[in-house]
Amino acid sequence: MAEAGTVLYYIVTLFAASIRMAVPLTLAGLGESFSERSGVLNIGLEGIMLSGAFFSFMAAYITQSIIVGVIFGCFGGLLISMIHAYMSFKCYVDQVIVGIALNFFSLGLTSFLFMAYFGRTTTVPQCPVVKPIRIPLLSDIPIVGDVLFNQDIFVYFMIFACFVSYIILYKTVWGTNIDAIGEHPKAADTVGLNVKKTRYITAIINGCLGGLGGAYLTLALLGFFMENITSGKGFIALVVVILGRRHPFGVLFAALLVGAAEALQYRLQTLGSGLPSQVFIMLPYVVTVIVLLFSIGKSSDPAALGISYKRSSR
Amino acid sequence: MKYTKELVSTLIIILITFLLAAVLIIVAKYDPGMALQSFFYGIFGSLHGFAEIMVRATPLILAGLGVSVAFSTGFFNIGAEGQLYMGAIAITFVGVFLPPMPPMLHIAVAILAGFLLGGIWAVIPGFLKAKYGVSEIITTIMFNYIAINIVGILVRTVLKNTESALPYSPVMPKSLSFPLLLYPTRLHGGLILALACAVLIYIIMKKTTIGYELRVVGFNKRAGTCSGISVYKNIVLASLISGGLAGLAGVSEIAGVHHRLLEGISPGYGYIAIIVALMGRNHPVGVIISAIGLSALQVGANSMQRQAGIPTSITSVLMGVIVLLALGKNIMFSGILKKMRIK
Question: How far apart are CA B88 and CA B84, in angstroms?
């Protein structure tokens, strides 16, 4: 009986952890979905998340306030995403290359400022982290209650954001406009839609949500910052977007899948199997590649994805 | 007049880069004078500095050539880092498990193995892209993380040096070392390999039908298909050459610098190689020049770190900004150029 109890507990904590691991991927994935639906491929998502993680950490560390941290996380993501927007909408530079350059820029900037501020310390500077909020009654449901209704505010926000995104993208005229612009910007422009403005707005959404995704790493999962803390999460979020076919709930589901791999990875590492820890660390990346293979042949990319729109061009 | 415009744009980029560096250094409360002095001393101050630039430029040229071949064919290979590590694994396997051989043969076998393993690591994403349209940007990046972890696993298991508790392989036999070119500096024969590869790639890309077809696929897939050039075949071929060259960078790092496999042999050479290819405009000569330039930037930054305590990550900021400015210069600077009456 006691054995069954521990197994159950193990499964519950694993599920709860999977959901937490899925938060940064889902938030960043939602933002990127908006951006990609409007035809803008932002490979700089890794840089957006990293910048969000750094600025949220610094703000929370200095002010000891999580709310300020969250605001600065959005700001950090926005900074990178606005440069991307300017470079690709105004200067017509290849969106992929801008993204790559911005990843460099963000990695360098966050590491430099972090090192410059803290120097070479042996103690890891900590920032406050969000506490789980028990939802009365619902959290008393066995198993489900602990998995779903005893989480931090970001988890609830993630679910809320999925619903809102779904409504915006599928139930409003503006959502249809976004799709139209992503499929055929010229036609959309001809019927009077403002391509540039819409793309700037989706870029803002992308920056804020991506920045929040990064902020979740520092303000909830870890409570500290280190160089390249995202270690590829932004790229994994790009996969989540592809697998979820830019549908908010598809993104959520895909993120949960990869999140589960990540949660499992941490569990397996601590189990003490005698295998090098790298076997487990590489698990989420391997799962991501395998997951990507499942999307083969189901491609539904917006027709104008990654192509800069120049009004005067033919 | 076109050249004047190019020259002025380049000068503006250099000026902005320097200003940005100065702002970062001053904001972070480091000594800017000391920084400037140590930056240039690190680059021009000694023979050692010159050799160090070339040592770092070697893997950048090799991996940069690889990335440039892929980019010319429209294959966004972001995975040079992982392919480099695969090449390093290959030469280590040759050194540890194959019987002793005469030096020239041994190196040749290692180079071939490194090229193949690096190539295979890129061909998998290449195949997935060409056949199924799977985004190579994602797969090559994931393969980077996987390759780095494979190195971590190997140096703790199969390739572990049993005489030591630390995670690295045994030292490679003497026959698997590149000769030193400029004793007592670290400058090694890998540079010659890199330059030879640059010549070879120049000939292949610009003077042969193979290179022509690769470039056609990169320029316009549809035009290629219409004139009977197989997009599938050329993308797979480009990924093989690209990954192979990055693999050679790994071989060169082991044979010339580290002489054993260990974690972290590359301080991001594979990623910087992307910038090298972009700045070199996918031309072998451009790749060599930009590899040496970016390598000098790093050597200077290392010197700044030693002398003035400035974190080397400043180079990543500057590299990102340089790329953005270089790509957007025509539109960004159009106002300034107009005021200066340069057309």
Answer: 6
Tell me if A91 and B274 make a contact (CB, 8 A cut-off).
no
Examine the domain organization and report whether B195 and B319 are in the same domain. Answer: no
- Looking up tokens 């590869």 gives B197
How far is Cα A143 from Cα A124, in angstroms, rounded to an integer? Answer: 35
Q: Is B339 on the interface with A (CB under 8 A)?
A: no
Query: Is B128 in contact with A43 (Cβ distance < 8 A)?
Result: no
**Residue of A49, A51, A88, A104 to mutate when probing chain B, most B C-beta within 10 A:** A104
**Burial bucket for residue B115 (CB in 10 Å: 0-12, 13-18, 19+):** buried
Q: Does the domain spanning A11-294 belong to CATH 1.20.1270? A: no
B157 and B217 belong to one structural domain: yes
How large is the ipTM?
0.88
Whether residue B335 is found in the same domain as residue B302: no
On whether both B305 and B316 belong to a single domain, the answer is: no
B274: closest CA among B187, B144, B147?
Answer: B144
From chain B, pick out residues whose CB is under 8 angstroms from the CB of A238.
135, 137-138
B164 in the same domain as B86: yes
What distance in Å separates the CA atoms of residue A178 and residue A197, rounded to the nearest whole number?
11
Residues of A in contact with B311 (CB under 8 A): 111-112, 115-116
- Domain ranges in chain A? 11-294
Residue B30 forms contact with A (CB below 8 Å): yes
CA distance A232 to chain B (A): 8
pLDDT tens by residue, chain B, 343 residues: 567 888 888 899 999 999 999 999 998 888 888 999 999 999 998 898 999 999 999 999 999 999 999 999 999 999 999 999 999 999 999 999 999 888 889 999 999 999 999 999 999 999 999 998 888 888 999 999 999 999 999 999 988 888 888 899 999 998 899 999 988 889 999 999 999 999 999 999 999 999 999 999 888 888 888 888 899 999 999 999 999 999 999 999 999 999 999 998 998 899 999 999 998 989 999 999 999 999 999 999 999 999 988 999 999 999 999 999 988 888 888 878 788 776 5
Residue at B259: amino acid letter = H
Query: Cβ(B82)–Cβ(B123) under 8 Å?
Result: no
What pTM, to 2 d.p., does this model score? 0.91
Note whether B28 contacts A112, CB cutoff 8 Å: yes
Distance CA B263, CA B256 (A): 16
What residues in A contact B314, CB-CB < 8 Å?
108, 112
